[in-house]
Amino acid sequence: MNISYYLYAILLCSGFIPSLQAAEFCDDAYYVDTTLPNQARWDMCWEHRAREGVLLHHIHYTPANGTRRMVLYQAAVAQIHVPYDNNSSRFHDVTDYGLGDKYISALKPEECISGKLLNYFGKNILCQQVQPRDDAYSVDNERQQGDALSLFSVSVIGSYNYIPEWRFFDDGTIQPGMGATGALQRFGYNSLMPHGWPLTDYKVGIAHLHNFFWKLDFELGGTPNDDAVEEINYTQSDGKTLRNNTRFTTEAARSVDPVQLRSWRILDTQLTNSKNLPISYDIQLPESGQRDAGPSFEPFTEHDIYITKQKSCELFASHNPSTNGCAEDLSTFANGENIEGQDVVVWASTTFYHMPRAEDAPRMDAHWSHISLIPRDWHDKNPLSDSAETAAKTSTPPPVPPTPPVVPVEVVNTATFLGKGWLYPRHFNIPLIMRSLQLAWAAERFKPFTKSP
Amino acid sequence: MKYRSTTLCLLAILTLWQAAAHATPDDTCNGQSFSKTFASGAKWRLCWASQPAEGIVLSQIHYQAPHQPERRILGQASLSQLETAFDDGSVTPLFLSTEAGFGGNNLQTLTAQDCSNGTLHAAEGRNVLCETTRDSGYSYKYVTQRQGQLLELASHSQIGARNYSLRWRFYENGTLEPSLGLSGELPIVDATDSAYGWAVMQSGKIATGFTDHALWRLDFDLDTTPANDVVEEITSTPTADRIRKTKAITTLDTETGRSFDPDIKRFWRIRDGVLTNGSVGQLSYELVPNRYDHSRANSSNEDCLAHDVFFTRYKACEQHAAHNATTDCGANVSQFANGESLDQQDVVVWYKQSYHHLPRSEDSNRIGTVWSSFQLLPRDWHATNPF
């Protein structure tokens, strides 16, 4: 054996070649492995595709001091559907054009501030950044700054620049997002005023929708056939909000329901945390206020989320290649097949309705849409805090304010006692007699709170 | 009994004092003035103060795009009330702003560490507000690209077990994004019925779920004249075959409560009754919501939670969307909206954002911060994109 192989093996075993520990599932050039400042780690592979643009696969999350587990086997944008209000166009941008190949932009360093550009055959198409994400948590005077790994690319389709972005938080949250910037695609004369917004004399920007779809092939804990999806609904009555979880046994097409506060979660039927709760991810579609059910010939717009059995030919929410007997869109992917013990795929969507405004010309600032995937019982407790569990309260005290770290001298008598500074003008030097009256009044005023947590 | 009437009398005096302090539908700067000019020349100018109930309240919020006139957007903006309702109904809904307060001693003192790369600002001798400037990614990309920045003002209030962040983001392009962050610890962790919560504790104990209704008060005073603003409702109604949509703009003539409706894409803008952008547009700001998915949470069928947004005419005593002091004033926003004219008036927008929190194991020691935000977006505030 060549001595250099020996040296190489020694280096490898001693961890001097970190990049080679990694890529089990792809070439090193397509492997992203980021440890965030709080020690949470995300690692995954990426792949360039003509239609989906940048597709992510084998997405693993390792909580700070925790166990590395797969979350998603594959995740990609599955369609951008853009119908215009006057029916002048109904684009299916991902399938009819594509986010990859000639449509994907070469990014410059100034577009990837403090980040790293990743290239595909010599073209920098993906920006990898670590960004602060404000508070991870805050309690009393203990605050923890959080961070996120961000991966984005830019694809030029017509006048639009789409920015598919994936943000991976240090608490396990995944936020798929889509930005849209560039210039308005379609204008008309004043006769089109009922379908748009006047930008200048004789120029109307035509209103349109962006229906964004993602295909999320979860494999919680790395096993494909033991995930299940639940819908969470609430019944509200008499001051109560009663929860009901329903597990899907067959493929489903569902929508947000703000009356039932509806959300979904995908859970592993085998793995639990130390509290014996299945590890899972909540799926939330908060930005659904502009959801749109389109015409009958676009049945895939009818629902906000589809749960299907994984089929490798089912790639796009609409205009899916129907060769080899594959279905054409989401409405027919979800055709009642049993999903128990199957590899489950979640197709999630959100909609941006764009009524143009004068500021959208000549260049349109980016507008953003997101969905949220949030770990539920993936950890035993908050992965970014070593604190002990919240103690059960034996009584139900009122929302007592904490002792302030600095108390201005002139208010110490009343403010600390009452904790309700709004009851009186604090900067007045109230005579003692008035203070005592206030205290007496406050004692009555706050009686009801003895029942409050 | 005499004791009680004396104290009530005192309350009345204090309430009057409070009302007087709020009676400022003009140019009065409440608290300290603040301004930020970005490298691009875009500028935000405002006043801020800590009020006992609301915490940080902003007033006289002005925006100026590069090479454009400075104009006022809002006379005042605040989180007027945070109503919180527990899933099991074991506690009647609490009104955290008026019953406990985001200000006063609940407003937390911030350290330099709490405000990394930022600047701390003090009120009444304590550092309570953190100012930071952040990169906001692409402002636009089209042939050329531009990276944008935002100004953030953030504060924290500890109210019982929970900790709330009030965060205001001001973008270079005139967009204003108020946010409420929920964190702290779970308020009830020893409930008995799992249908009203989730068994997140090591002991198997159940933490109770809850809904927070953030009730924002946005007193629009577009440009110099506060009393000539107009509310427009814009809808896009699909044809029967749902192939096309037809826009309609309706002026809301009288005080009213309204709700978002995805089917007709309903939204609102507050526009100046007079001023234009020099082109065909009239100066306005629109409300862009978020968190539609829990927006009909209202387990006690309260009138003030029956609509996403209420539009009322400015009244000094109308300070809190719910649990308002009722001395000669309505108790909540549904009573404020009593049919007075809104046309060419000083308009106040009350926006409700509801979020239901189902505890998870991750919350059992610290609730990971959950943000709820919305945007106020300039619409025809400029004739073209100022950048």
How would you describe what is shown here?
The complex is a heterodimer of chains A (453) and B (387). By secondary structure, chain A is mainly beta. Chain A has 2 domains: 3-376, Beta-galactosidase, Chain A, domain 5 (Distorted Sandwich); 414-444, no CATH class. Helix content of chain A is 10%, strand content 41%. Chain A has 6 helices and 24 strands. Chain A has helices at 3-13, 19-22, 93-96, 330-333, 412-418, 432-445, and strands spanning 31-35, 41-49, 53-62, 69-83, 90-92, 116-120, 123-139, 142-152, 155-157, 160-169, 174-182, 187-188, 196-200, 203-206, 208-218, 227-237, 240-247, 252-254, 263-272, 278-284, 305-309, 344-354, 364-370, 372-376. In chain A, strands 1, 2, 3, 4, 5, 15, 18, 21 and 22 form a 9-stranded antiparallel sheet that branches. In chain A, strands 6, 7, 8, 9, 10, 11 and 23 form a 7-stranded antiparallel sheet that branches. In chain A, strands 17-16-19-20-24 form a 5-stranded antiparallel sheet, with no helix packed on it. The termini of chain A are far apart. In chain B, strand 2 (43-51) and strand 3 form a beta hairpin. Chain B is built from 3 helices and 22 strands. With 387 residues, chain B is mainly beta. In chain B, 7% of the residues lie in helices and 47% in strands. Chain B has a single domain (37-379), classed as Copper amine oxidase, catalytic domain (Beta-galactosidase, Chain A, domain 5). Classes of the chains: A mainly beta (453), B mainly beta (387). At the A-B interface, strand 7, strand 8, strand 11, strand 13 and strand 16 of A face helix 1, helix 2, strand 7, strand 8 and strand 9 of B.
Tags for this model:
heterodimer, A: 453 residues, mainly beta, Beta-galactosidase, Chain A, domain 5, 9-stranded antiparallel sheet, 6 helices, disordered C terminus, B: 387 residues, 3 helices, 22 strands, TPQ (chain A), oxidoreductase (chain A), copper ion binding (chain A), quinone binding (chain A), Cu_amine_oxidase_C_sf (chain A)
